Every structure is written in C-alpha cells, then in structure tokens.
Amino acid sequence: MTDSSPLPIDPIAEARRQWLVHGWDSAADGMAAFSSVMRAHQLMYSRVDSVLKPMGLSYARLEMLRLLSFSRDGTLPMASASARLQVHPTSVTNVVDRLEKDGLVRREAHPTDGRATLIVITDSGYTLVEQATQVLNEQVFESPGIPAEDLRSMTAILARFRRASGDFIDPPVRPEPF
C-alpha cells in the first residue's frame, strides 16, 4: 500500500543508520538491501494490483492464465503449473478453483496418467489474459519508473542472488539446429 504523500525521510536509510549506531555494522547493508527489496515489492505489487483488480484478476491468477496461454495447447498438469510458478500445490489449487468458477479454465483428466489433472484455459481465459497483459504492459511494464539500464542491472543482480540461493540452475547450452 502506498501513501498519498512521500515520507520526509527514507525509513530504510534511517534503519541502516540505527543498525550502525547499535554496532551491527556487518549486517547493516544486508538489512537495508533486504528491506529495500521487500518495500519495492510492495510498491510494484500495488501498481500491478491497481491495473488487474478492475479486470477481476490478481497477479497469481494472471500468472496462471499466462502460463497456460504460453503452453502448446493451453493445457498443463497441475503439478507442472506448481513447479513452473514456484508455488505450493495448494496455492495452484486455490487459484484454479477461482479461475474455474469464473469460467476462465477447466479441469480435465490426464489422458495417460490417472493420478494427474490437467488445467485447460478456456476461450474466455485466453481473451482476458490477452487484454490484461496488454493493459499491464502499457500501464506498468513499459514505464516501470526505473531506467532501462538499471532494470537490466537489477534483474541480473537478483538473478545471481536467486541462483546462489538455489532458486534455479543455468540450463545446459543447447546446440544450434542444423
């Protein structure tokens, strides 16, 4: 949530100063970085939410629809969606329940794995995800309020952190096609 007027000081810079005053010098920069990322997340999420909410979507619902729309046939097993979105299977179930209730996806039995359930995006889901993506691109992603060079640097720094934290591994180099 953002306030209508900016604070007179940067509270994270003040917290860092207090860390230093209390002798936590070795932790001050880490605390400030983590706090900055968490606050930036709040600010970014607020912008995204303000665009998606009028369309009846949350970012989690948009991610699911976008993931399905990117798949070859608009279909993914629930377990694959959970892995690709990096969320707990229960979260996928909750999102799919809401999307299904709104007619944006449907569940189908997996044709070869009796234990698996497929999530299938509907025509309404395709239409909505295309509209939402266009509006989100125009109103948020194309002008995020951070210069392009800084965005690339920030993304690279966060990717290195995520990789080092075990979030992903570098994919093998794929050979060029003949």
UniProtKB/TrEMBL annotation:
Pfam families for this protein: MarR
Keyword Transcription regulation on entry: yes
Residue ranges of every copy of the HTH marR-type domain listed in the record: 30-163
InterPro entries: HTH_MarR-typ, MarR/SlyA-like, Tscrpt_reg_MarR-type_CS, WH-like_DNA-bd_sf, WH_DNA-bd_sf
Keywords: DNA-binding, Transcription, Transcription regulation
PROSITE patterns noted in UniProt: HTH_MARR_1, HTH_MARR_2
Name of the featured protein: MarR family winged helix-turn-helix transcriptional regulator
Lineage of producing organism: Bacteria, Bacillati, Actinomycetota, Actinomycetes, Micrococcales
